[in-house]
C-alpha cells in the first residue's frame, strides 16, 4: 500500500507540474477571452461584442488621446448588455483612475436583444453560461481558475497555437483570414445566412437595455461615455433594422446619457469586412482613427 | 456524480483513504462506508431518487429472506411476483409511462378517435434500468435456489448501490458481487495499478475518443438534411465509435475503480468491433446485459430449443426487449428488431456460434476473409446505430434516404467543428483500433501486469497527459439516459 501511495503521489505531482507548465503557456492565441480575464484593471474602456473586439484597435486610440485604452468587448454570447457584463465592467474598471476617462460603447440591436422565449428571462440569457458568470477573478494573471473551469478549447491548443486569431494584451482581436474575394464572399454568405436564420429568435429586451443605461450611468462617474453603432455590410444592416426598426429612437435615453452618439453606418468609409459583420485589419485601423476623430471633435465643442 | 468530473477526482481519493486506512479492519464498517459513499455518489445527481434505491433494496432484501424460508411454491411465486412488480413498476412508471400513453393516444387517433392525454413531466432516475435489473437478478436467483440469500442488510445494500457500477453497469450478478462483499478484501499493488490503468484507458475512451466524435456526430445528426450522403455515412461511422468509447469507457472506469478496492466486476465489452458476425458481436457487446437477457428471459422462454417458430419468436423477443430496455422510443425497438433480423439467418443455419475465440488468435494480422467479415459486421452495426442515434423513426428514415442518395459518393465534410478537432477524432479512433487490436488477446487491451513498474507508471502518465490535452470538457455519458 505504501509503495502504491508513493507512486501515485509521484504521478500526481508530475502530472500537476506538467499541467501548470502548460497553463503558463496560455496567451492571446489560446482563445478569444483569456487575455481579457487575465489583464489588470483598466481605465479607458471599449465595450461591445465581437464587432467591436475586431473593429476597434485600442492602440490607435491610445496614440490619438495619449491615454491607454483597453478593448473589453468580447462576443454576443458573453458581452451582450446585462447584469453579468455590467458586473464584469465594474470589476475591470480601475475606479481609482480619476474622472477624466474615455469610454466607448458600441451598440447594435443584437446586444440589447435576447434569444430566450421571453426576452426578459435573464436567468436564461446566454451569458449566464459564460466565463463571466463563473465567479472567476477577471483581473488575475495567470488565471488558472479560468483555464481549469471555463476554457472551451482543448488544452493542446495551449501547446500548438492556432495562428488565425490573436488577442492582444490591449484586448484587440486580430483575425487573419484569407481575404480574396471568393473567401470573403463565401464567409459573408455563410454568416449572413446564419444571422438571417436566427433573426426571428431575437427580440428586444428591456432588461438588457436597462443594463446598458446602468453601464453608462456607472461609467459617467469616471469619465465620458461615447456611443457608436458600428458599420456592417448593407445586408446585415437590413437584418438589424428588421429586428429593431427604430433603433435610434429606442436607445434615445442612452443617447441622452452619453456625451455623443454616432451611427457609423451612415458614413461611407469604404470599409471592408471579412464576413459581412467584422471589419478586416486595415479597415479596423481606419475605423478606429475615425472614432478618435469623432470623439476629438466632440471634446473640442 | 460523473466519472469525468472534478467532483469524482476528489471523491475517489477521499473514499480510497477512508476505505483502506479507516475502515479496513472492520468488514461491516467498510461495507457501510461503501453504502454511504454510493448514496453520496448517486445523490450528487438528485438526492430525491435515493429513496427509490433504498425502497428497492428493502423490498428485495425482505423478499430474498422470505424466499429462503418459504417452501410453499405458490407463496414463493407471490414473493417473486411482488419483487418483479415493484421493480418493473418503478422502471415502467419512470421510463415508459409517457411512451405508452402517447402510443395509446396515437393508436386511437389513427382510427379517428381523439383522446385527451395528460403526459407527466417525469424525470428519469439515472441508472434505474441498471440497478433494477441487478436487484431482480438477485431475487430470481434466490427463487431458483441458485443463490443463498444474505441476511446482512448492509452488504446487500452495498451490492445494490455499489457506486462504480450503479448508474451504467456492468449489471452485476449477486452470485459474483455479493460474495465479494461478504469477505474481507485485501489491497494488492499489481491489481490496483491494473485498475488505475483501466480507469485511465476508460477515461481516454470517453473524453478523448467519444467526446471528440460527439462534436462531429451531433453537428451532423442535428442538421442531417444539410449534409451529403457521404457525410451522413461518416456521421454514423463516428457514432459507432462514440457510443463504444462512451459506454465501454464507463465500464472500464467502473471495473478499474472496483479493482482499486479489491473487487472484480464482470467484463462488459470484449472488442466487439472485431466481431466476424452479429452473433459474435452480441457476445462481445454489453455482455452484462445480453447475458442477463439470455439467462432471465431467453432461456426461460425456451431458448434456441423447439421449433423454428419458437426460435424466431424467442430471438425477436429478446432483441425487441433489449432495444426497449434502452429507451422509451420506437427507434430503440427498431434497432433491436434490426439486430434480430441480422441474427436470425445465423441462428437458422446454425452458424451463430462459429466464432467463439477472438479473431486471429494465434496470428498478428487477420486474413482477408476475416477482414471482410469484420468490415461487413461493422457495417451492419453502423446501419443499426442510425436508428439508435435518431430522435424519431422519421428522422432515421430521412437520414437513410439522404445517406443512400448519389451524394454518398461525394467527399464528406466534417470540418465545420474545426479541422483540428476533426483530425483529433479520427486519429484517436485509429489509436483505439490499434491498441485494441494488439491487446485483443487480453481482458483489457493495455495489459501491463508483466511489465516493470516504471513502464506502468510512465504509461499512466502518458495517458493522463493525453486525456488532459485532448479531452473535451465534462460531458454526460450516453448510457446515463438508459
UniProtKB/TrEMBL annotation, chain A:
Origin superkingdom: Bacteria
Protein name: SGNH/GDSL hydrolase family protein
Organism: Carboxylicivirga marina
Organism phylogeny: Bacteria, Pseudomonadati, Bacteroidota, Bacteroidia, Marinilabiliales
Automatic annotation (TrEMBL), chain B:
Topological type in the membrane: Multi-pass membrane protein
Keywords tagged on the record: Acyltransferase, Cell membrane, Membrane, Transferase, Transmembrane, Transmembrane helix
Family annotation (InterPro entries): Ac/AlaTfrase_AlgI/DltB, AlgI, MB_O-acyltransferase, MBOAT_fam
Predominant location category: membrane
Keyword Lipid metabolism: no
Keyword Membrane: yes
Subcellular location: Cell membrane
Any single Pfam family the record assigns to this protein: MBOAT
Transmembrane segments: 6-22, 51-67, 79-99, 119-140, 224-244, 332-349, 370-388, 394-415, 422-439, 454-471
Family matches, as PANTHER family: ACYLTRANSFERASE, PROTEIN-CYSTEINE N-PALMITOYLTRANSFERASE RASP
Family under the similarity heading: Belongs to the membrane-bound acyltransferase family.
Protein name, UniProt field: MBOAT family protein
Organism: Carboxylicivirga marina
